[in-house]
Write a structure and sequence with these properties.
- There is one protein chain.
- The protein is an alpha+beta fold.
- The chain is 30% helix and 15% strand.
- The strands form 2 sheets. It has a two-stranded antiparallel ribbon. Strands 3-4 form a two-stranded antiparallel sheet.
- A hairpin with a 2-residue loop joins β3 and β4.
- α1 packs across α2.
- The protein is globular, with a radius of gyration of 13 Å.
- The N and C termini lie far apart (26 Å).
- The structure holds zinc ion.
- Zinc ion binds next to β2.
């Protein structure tokens, strides 16, 4: 099975409990519960705002990680995600 990532914030969706849900509470296959709940995105962030937010989270979770490096990686990866793909 292919490893799934949230198509909004790139968090790994390794556990069904982490999936977001539709308005009828069925799980959404593409997004995590932090990004998507009850059939809608939880915030109207732009891709840039999402990258800023995720950089902050990642640096907090991984002390010693260079913020600039994390940000550059996300700038390459995020445009491929379903939510940000044009
Ligand atoms: Zn997410």
């Amino acid at each position: 099975m292919e490893l799934e990532f949230c198509q909004s914030c790139s968090m790994p969706l390794h556990d069904s409990a982490i999936h977001g849900c539709e308005a009828d509470s069925s799980p959404n296959p593409h997004y995590c519960k932090y990004c998507y709940q009850n059939g809608a995105f939880t915030s109207g962030m732009t891709m840039k705002e999402m990258i800023d937010f995720c950089t902050l989270m990642m640096v907090q979770a991984n002390p010693g990680m260079a913020a600039q490096q994390a940000r550059e990686r996300m700038h390459q990866f995020f445009p491929l995600l379903l939510r940000w793909k044009k």
